[in-house]
Amino acid sequence: MLSDHAVSILIFAGIDVVMALSFYLPASAGQLSAGQGGFMALGAYTSAYLTAHLGVPFPLALVAGGLVGGLVGLAVGFPALRLRGLYLVLVTFGFGEMVRVLFLNAPAFGGPAGFAGIPAATTFWHVLGLLVVLVYFFARVSGSRMGRAFAALRDDEAAAEAMGVNSTYVKLAAFAAGGVIAGLGGGLYAHYTLYIDPEAFGVSRSLFVMLYAVFGGLASFWGSVAGATILSVLPELLRWVKDWREILYGLLVLAMMLVRPQGLLDAALLARLSPRGERAAARG
What we know:
The protein is mainly alpha-helical. It contains 13 helices and no strands. The protein is globular and about 55 Å long.
């Protein structure tokens, strides 16, 4: 049996994987979002309010948090349709800060004092169940027509449109789906920590979500899974260095990015690890 501390580490690591996947989905369509912390906050506060004040069952509140994140993601996607790269990052960064300030000045949600009294509901099995569903979803999407549309937009938007890809629909779908996933992650987070405040969903949250995905590699959703898992568990493995832990953590991340700027799992490595790649190597 795992200790309570080990289970807690696994739950937080699982939530980080959920958030990394929420960033990967729009990123796979060429849409880099620096506002995932804002979507997470919407899911966390929505689900917490429903369970703590209205007595809504946790599963329904969790779904509601995801839907709110998705609807707002759809709304954010419209002004971002003509933006790419740094400009899109800045717009979504501004959105995340807007959400943080909104909850900071909302007395109904606790304001700067935070939202307490959230019922304990999230378990390891809830997190694991959501991860299984997401892995299945991403595996299906990656080989589907929508997945190919995502890849085409990421590589060359003009060429993708010339081939008949509806870029507006695809981008909005990516933003909305990413918002849903982040909202679900926020709901799980709120019902495990039992207390949330706006600062928990600030700039650092969004930056770490981006780091998880980039560290693991954007060639596949497995990169986000691997990156978030490693970087979430790594601080616990570095406890023995005590005060030097954060410095060593940063140095390890920096070294990884210098050695493998494409991320831990790039397209070539994934091809070799796949069954097809192994058969090709055996024939070659």
